[in-house]
Design brief:
- The chain has 13 helices and 13 strands.
- By secondary structure, the protein is α/β, with parallel strands linked by helices.
- The strands form two sheets. The protein has a seven-stranded parallel beta sheet with strand order 3-2-1-4-5-6-7, sandwiched between helices. It has a six-stranded parallel beta sheet with strand order 10-9-8-11-12-13, sandwiched between helices.
- Helix 5 links the parallel strand 6 and strand 7.
- Helix 3 packs parallel to helix 4.
- The longest helix has 17 residues.
- About 45% of the residues are buried.
């Protein structure tokens, strides 16, 4: 009988849950999702909903404790939610005896699973994560899983970390044939504002649209309204057909977040990337690698850009190069790899 796989989902970002669900959908019912606020969001897949570990509603991932060991990022003292969280996870481990724990992402949970005698696969994101907690979590893991193509990895990442990493591009984004085949609207610009960053500045985007009056601009995602919206700009907010709009865009403008990048690469559309400030330089590192691979042009996230020149440069990118960095079967390949690893008792 195949042994269970636990998948810990970090609760600060939709991308973590999307990766977990994509892999779990291909894992033949072997995965139990573990995390905070999962109830009702995992479909038919079993889950363990953990108590909240936040200090308060303005949680920023910092505990402010000068006595915290250097191998940990977050370990506040006398937090009842964390006590109950640890108890719930170790109780599930003791009962289910999982062959493997996938951790996306938390250095503390990776070390807890390893202490509980479970082999760990750690999901490694972009950027140079060479701080103490990440290094220890990487060393404790059986293997590291990167949800992007190897060519997009930061060249400064140590060789031993890269050697331990398996790369699975296309984990989340899988466009269907109808989305791929939509006719492109050549003079259109689609701006994608995701969940993880700040609300879009409608006034600044209106200026960009005015600077390129020969193009139509559409903004999807959260954005402030504009009193004197130019005729070539539409601010739509959240939409149900974001993939389709990206697939037919003349040029896509967005951050270097996993969801945006994955969809743009899968659709093979010209990409103007505006990386946001993130811990460990995650988005800036990813944007730099996208530029080096010839699949994106980078602009300034302050929106103080020469829009006509940047858009024209993006239009000259080779769409075939972008599609080579995606894998339509990425989620299925990752799930098969993890199941095989679990069948070997977590031995790579």
């Amino acid at each position: 009988m195949s042994r269970a796989i636990g998948y810990y989902v970090h609760h600060h970002g939709a991308g973590h849950r999307a990766r977990a669900m994509a892999i779990t959908d291909h894992a033949d019912g072997r995965v139990t999702l573990i995390g905070t606020r999962l109830t009702g969001l995992t479909g038919a897949h079993p889950c363990v909903d953990l108590p909240d570990d936040r200090m308060d509603d303005t949680f920023d991932g910092v505990d402010g404790d000068a006595s915290r060991p250097p191998a940990l990022h977050y370990a506040p003292i006398d937090h009842d939610g964390i006590r109950r969280r640890v108890a719930a996870m170790t109780a599930w481990i003791a009962t289910s005896k999982p062959a493997l724990m996938v951790v996306d992402v938390s250095c503390e949970i990776a070390m807890l699973a390893r202490l509980a005698s479970v082999p760990v696969v750690y999901v490694r994101l972009s950027g140079l994560r060479n701080d103490g907690p990440h290094e220890q979590a990487f060393r404790a893991a059986t293997m590291l899983l990167a949800p992007f193509a190897e060519v997009l990895d930061d060249p400064a990442v140590p060789k031993w970390v890269r050697a331990k990493t398996r790369y699975f591009p296309g984990l989340v984004t899988q466009l269907d044939a109808r989305t791929w085949s939509q006719p492109v609207e050549p003079r259109s610009v689609v701006v994608v504002i995701g969940q993880g960053g700040a609300e879009g500045d409608g006034a600044a985007w209106a200026q960009a649209a005015r600077a390129t009056a020969d193009r139509t601009w559409t903004i999807i995602g959260p954005c402030t309204p504009v009193a004197d919206e130019p005729g070539n700009l539409q601010i739509l907010g959240w939409v149900d057909d974001a993939d389709a709009r990206i697939a037919r865009a003349g040029v896509v403008i967005g951050s270097a977040g996993d969801g945006v990048v994955g969809t743009v690469l899968a659709a093979g559309r010209p990409f103007l990337c505006l990386p946001e400030d993130r811990p460990f330089g995650e988005q800036r590192a990813k944007a730099a690698r996208l530029v080096a691979a010839g699949v994106a042009v980078m602009g300034d996230n302050s929106l103080n850009n020469d829009w006509p020149a940047l858009i024209a440069t993006a239009e000259r990118l080779d769409p075939a190069a972008a599609r080579e960095l995606q894998d339509a079967n990425g989620a299925a390949r990752a799930a098969a790899y993890l199941c095989a690893l679990a069948d070997r008792g977590g031995r790579s």
